[in-house]
Amino acid sequence: MSGHSKWATIKRKKGANDAIRGAMTTKISREITIAVKMGGADPTGNMRLKLALSKAKANNVTKDNINRAIQKGLGASDTSNYEEISYEGYGPGGAALLLDILTDNRNRTAADVRHIFSKYGGNLGENGCVAWMFKKKAVFTVEKETFDDEDTLMEIVMDAGAEDFDSDDEVFEITAAPEDFDAIEKVLGEKGIETASAEITQVPDTTVQLSGADAEKMQKLLDALDENDDVQNVYGNYEF
Fold first, then answer.
1. CA-CA distance, 203 to 4, in Å (whole number)?
2. Which pTM does this prediction carry?
3. What is the dihedral of CA 114, 117, 123, 128, to 10 degrees?
4. How far is it, in rounded angstroms, from Cα 29 to Cα 157?
5. pLDDT category, 3, cuts 50, 70, 90?
6. Which are the contacts of 75, defined by CB distance < 8 A and separation ≥ 6?
């Protein structure tokens, strides 16, 4: 697959330990709450909520947790102090990392994230140091075990506006402009094609190959960031 591997991320999440799974539920619930607070509880007119609910489904967040998060957003009782910020830096082997942060204590989060980077061979950088290496894209993955007709899938998504179509042994990956997310999601749904993930993410222009000690340290760095409740998303230009 070109540039990056969403499937690698999916497999990593499926095999995540209890701490990471618990943190993932917390992050997604918080994202749902903020999305509802900002745009209402109807995902039809709230893209942020639609994406959060898609992520909740992909990560097996329970309906009870989702409903609680929605109700918190409607009440907006515990979200007023959260702010959204981005951190940028470098991991082992010089790989670029871009982080989405949602925090109620900027100083605490900055110290925690800086410590994680330092512990596993990375360092935080100034704003703008790596963001230019990424472009925002809509990315869908379809597991071949659920749908394996490559020619048909390619025709469907390209007609709906997809920019790129790739595959490896286990998945198809569809990349499009963010504004074409709805059209592709709609046509996949109409054709009964289930997605393993559907998100708007940051895709790197180029990648850095990591192996050996650098790959091991990067995996530990990613796991530590996953366990931190304030780190909502991590984007990187690494490949293992």
1. 7
2. 0.82
3. -70
4. 30
5. very low
6. none
